[in-house]
Design brief:
Length: 248
């Protein structure tokens, strides 16, 4: 009787092993992203930016905003809050970019709140995420240059390599800094394959004269993404509040 019981248990064990479902293959992040690239839809994000000299680290900015997919490129609405609670806002849509608040406020003509410039904007700035995983070419580069372990991808990409794949970065002031500057990153992916978090860090080198004080500084940015593919709205400011030039 004992022998018969052992045989039955052994058979059941084999059945359980062979009947276990195969583990699902990881979703392709680039394919998952492209499925969300519908005009008028987008993704929301929040991020924290830190400055460090290698010894001390200071909380610099808290940013939040929305990226909206367009027929060509991205529109965005971004609010930047500095360590001293000074607030700036940047909106880019329809081939124009609008800036408000911060140091600009004292130079604006009476009754105007927004400065309008041609072009898609000059983001990212020093304290904004330099890597944009909402661009398929950028996401693809991060995956290829990084090492994937579970839901995380860690790696390094240079300013020069990023300029080739990322319109977000190529149009920014940082793209003129030292081309060989390495950016370390950790990208976290959801089961859907879409990015949920992106941490990046670089040491400023070869900066232009306007940012001379940043030479050698380390900038860390931690960004979290939510609501991929949801409907979002990015609208230009009311025309009556906009100017194309500073007060004389």
């Amino acid at each position: 009787m004992m022998k018969k019981t052992i045989i039955v248990l052994a058979v059941c064990g084999v059945f359980l092993v062979t009947a276990a479902p195969a583990q699902a293959a990881p979703k392709d992040p680039v394919r998952a992203l492209k499925a969300k690239l519908v005009p008028g839809h987008g993704v929301r994000f929040t991020e924290t930016a830190e400055w460090s000299d290698g010894t001390d680290t200071l909380h610099a900015y808290q940013n939040k905003g929305v990226l909206q997919f367009a027929k060509k490129g991205l529109n965005y609405d971004l609010t930047i809050t500095a360590w001293d609670d000074t607030e700036e806002r940047v909106i880019s849509t329809g081939g124009r970019t609008y800036y408000s608040g911060g140091a600009l406020a004292e130079y604006m003509p009476k009754g105007k709140r927004w400065l309008r410039l041609k072009g898609g904007g000059a983001l990212p700035g020093v304290y904004l995420q330099v890597l944009n995983p909402a661009e398929p070419t950028t996401l693809s580069a991060l995956l290829k240059k990084g090492k994937r372990e579970g839901s995380k991808v860690t790696g390094t990409i240079t300013f020069a390599a990023l300029t080739k794949v990322s319109p977000w970065f190529a149009g920014s002031e940082l793209s003129t800094w030292a081309a060989g500057t390495p950016i370390s990153y950790t990208l976290t992916l959801a089961p859907s394959g879409l990015p949920t978090r992106l941490w990046s860090s670089f040491r400023a080198k070869g900066v232009d004269r306007l940012y001379a004080d940043f030479e050698g500084s380390i900038i860390n940015v931690d960004t979290r993404y939510t609501g991929w593919g949801g409907k979002v709205s990015v609208k230009a400011p009311s025309p009556g509040t906009v100017t194309d030039r500073f007060a004389s």
